[in-house]
Amino acid sequence: MTSEILVRLLNVTKYFRQVSGFQKFRDFMLPESKNHVVEVKDVTIHLYRGEILALVGLPNSGKSIIGKLMAKVVEPNSGRVKNEYLTFLASHNHIFEGSTSVRQLIESVFLTYNMPLQSYNEKRKHVLDFAELGGKEKCSIQQLMIEERTKLLVSLAYFIKPDVIIFDELYQYMDRDFKKKFHMVIDMFKKERRAIVLIDSNMELIRTRANYITWMSHGQVKQSGAPDEVLPLYQSYVSDYYSCRTDEERELFDLQMRMSRSLNHDKDERLSRIKKYGGAIFDEKLQRTLISTLMLIAGIAMMFLLMINDIGMKKTEVAADEKGIVEKTVDEFREKYAIGVTNKPTELQGGQKVKLPAGNTMTISSIGDETYKVDYQKRTMEVKQQDIIYINPAALYDEYTISELEDYMYDNYSNFREFFNGYLGKHHSVINKELYPETNDRFKIKLTKNEIYLHFNDYDIMNGISFPIVNEEKLRQKFNISTEQWIIKLDDGYAIADFSKGEWLIIQM
């Protein structure tokens, strides 16, 4: 462990409001502190490089929320979280949502952590092998057992190798053999001076692994220190809690911490007097009447303002037209990693122009209003959005195999696909030497006596194959296709059926 601090939580408070609909508006107008559910309150924690920090506490003590705050999954209502390092939150209530497949989940995590697109296939296979999930990459994550999800989380952490790793209640779902793998992962992270947070109820794991313990109770830090100082006290505390015979006794357990959890009892909390000392001044019926009246008045005022603005807008437009004033908008870019495929011959702009044929694949790094920024030979260049087919690796594209689509593909490709696919990832010079192409363009070549074209990326590596669509109408009918470009996941890459050109394009990143 070093003295370098990777994550700081400074006087952090996080609460949620138990309101919705009309009550939510009422709470905004006339706030009541009783509507706040305080998850954590006034918590300060420092996480050092190379440290293994354990968070312990009874259920609902705020441990998992601390993990989410450290990972910046949620923002605090007050206080400050400072974390500028790559962080992975391995938690069952974080990434396992929706009906995405295992493969799509892995690739979306890769995308989030900016892993190179070219390494997706190899890394994904490693993740599945380590997690013992071979053959399940097309399964929905909802079909996995919780033990399998646990293995997947640990495997993702192992191959992403973030600076900060937060394991939230995973150990109980591991079998004996995988626990050995888990300890191996911890040993490796510790050797590499990565910071680890263990949120777990297994005291043996905490005792043997943690350098430091923070004990949470009712959303607050009850005690912090070395394991030999804190663990005996905490274990006695847990024993006392479970010795309570009734729910009433448990409600009164650790009453002082429970009472101080409420925002009402925090003298230093920056709340208004209404929030700190009272509920609403008016009863329920009067509140509803008052706020309904205010809403009606606000609506009338808004309509009046809109009417005024409409009248003024016409005059402004006329004046602007007479003066010939034209405001040029600035193209603002949003960072986004995706795959772009040229849909026609186009040019990349930036420094010097680069002319590309249709079917060329590139990495999109950010999105503007009308253009994309793309990576080309370690340079950032721009291309018009209208010239690009956009593929989002995190999107839920339908998945198919070649055998399901071969009836709609050019015979020479479908019959010899293993031969042609074997050249994906090979250098241009190898293709020229072994296949004797009919044409020899830098980015796209045609094979002799075939309607098959091979495509090359900016580093002269073959990453695409195009050929004609056959039985086009049957293809549209069978898969209910209404768009001109049909994008699907195909084996280890993507396929685009471009009906405007009558052409398939197989892509492997």
Automatic annotation (TrEMBL):
Origin: domain of life: Bacteria
Record-annotated membrane-spanning stretches: 290-308
An example molecular function term from Gene Ontology annotations: ATP hydrolysis activity
The ABC transporter domain, residue ranges: 7-243
Keyword Membrane belongs to the record: yes
The keyword Ion transport appears for this protein: no
Keyword field: ATP-binding, Membrane, Nucleotide-binding, Transmembrane, Transmembrane helix
Family annotation (InterPro entries): ABC_transporter-like_ATP-bd (IPR003439), Bact_Polysacc_Export_ATP-bd (IPR050683), P-loop_NTPase (IPR027417), TagH_C (IPR053990), TagH_SH3-like (IPR053989)
Entry protein name: ATP-binding cassette domain-containing protein
Source species taxonomy: Bacteria, Bacillati, Bacillota, Bacilli, Bacillales
